[in-house]
Specification:
It is built from 11 helices and no strands. It is mainly alpha-helical and about 240 residues long. The chain folds into 2 domains: about 100 residues, Orthogonal Bundle (Rna Polymerase Sigma Factor, Chain: A); about 140 residues, Orthogonal Bundle (Arc Repressor Mutant, subunit A).
Length: about 240
């Protein structure tokens, strides 16, 4: 874990991806155990859905684990965090949770700017997309969708409150469900670029792996995000 944290701190993405992949491989027995235990309450979620949620929680646990606090091993902490994440997602998915009023419902698909007078703060990445070569006609939406995808890929809200956690969890649930409904190639591309159930890759590295021009993969990703937008909005209106 210390090697992963060092790789992240130094910006060594290649080493981070390799070590993260090795970590996920080492915790596969724990993930299978979680999936097996929760399948009875998973409803329409597949084992792969639960495994993906568990894997993301395992990777998040790397930066949260402190060996000097308590006597639990990383495996124990990661197991309980991953199981809790899967239980939460299964509940949200099974009960079709959404906020009742329109203003709150919109928060499930949009990042909220921090408000110093409001304790509810949801993380937002105010930075250009790492895959975009230029501005789009709807940059604000792309930023918001990327924020939700990145939260699914191990980035968590800056300030924890139950309200913020609920809003963030609902948004992640909406986006994760939308990703599942993308066409296979689009789902694979989004998962690779945003690191869903795997270390994140740049568009350039995906293009090289697929033997395709980067410009073509950029366009594919833009179309996938546009499709995600429609799916998330439709889900939020249910």
């Amino acid at each position: 874990m210390s090697l992963i944290l060092s790789a992240r701190a130094s910006g060594n993405a290649v080493l981070d991806r390799r070590l993260s992949a090795e970590l996920l491989d080492s915790v596969k027995p724990l993930i299978r155990r979680i999936v097996g235990a929760l399948l009875p309450i998973a409803g329409s979620l597949s084992p792969d859905d639960l495994a993906q949620v568990a894997s993301m929680a395992m990777l998040r646990a790397v930066s949260k684990y402190d060996a000097t606090r308590g006597r639990q091993s990383f495996g124990q902490v990661a197991y309980f965090r991953a199981r809790a994440a899967c239980e939460q997602y299964a509940r949200l998915h099974g009960t079709d949770v959404h906020l009742s009023d329109g203003a709150h419902k919109r928060r499930t698909v949009r990042s909220l700017h921090s408000n110093e007078g409001n304790v509810v703060r949801v993380h937002r990445m105010d930075m250009p997309s790492h895959f975009s070569d230029g501005a789009s006609a709807d940059d604000s939406w792309v930023d918001e969708l990327e924020s939700a995808l990145r939260e699914m890929s191990c980035l968590e809200p800056d300030g924890y409150t139950p309200e913020a956690e609920l809003l963030a969890a609902e948004r992640r649930a909406l986006v994760f469900d939308a990703v599942r409904r993308l066409a296979p190639e689009q789902r694979e591309l989004v998962s690779r670029v945003f690191g869903l159930n795997r270390p994140a890759q740049s568009v350039r590295s995906v293009a090289e792996a697929w033997g395709a021009p980067k410009s073509r993969v950029d366009r594919m990703l833009a179309r996938a995000l546009d499709e995600l937008r429609e799916l998330v909005v439709c889900s939020g209106k249910r």
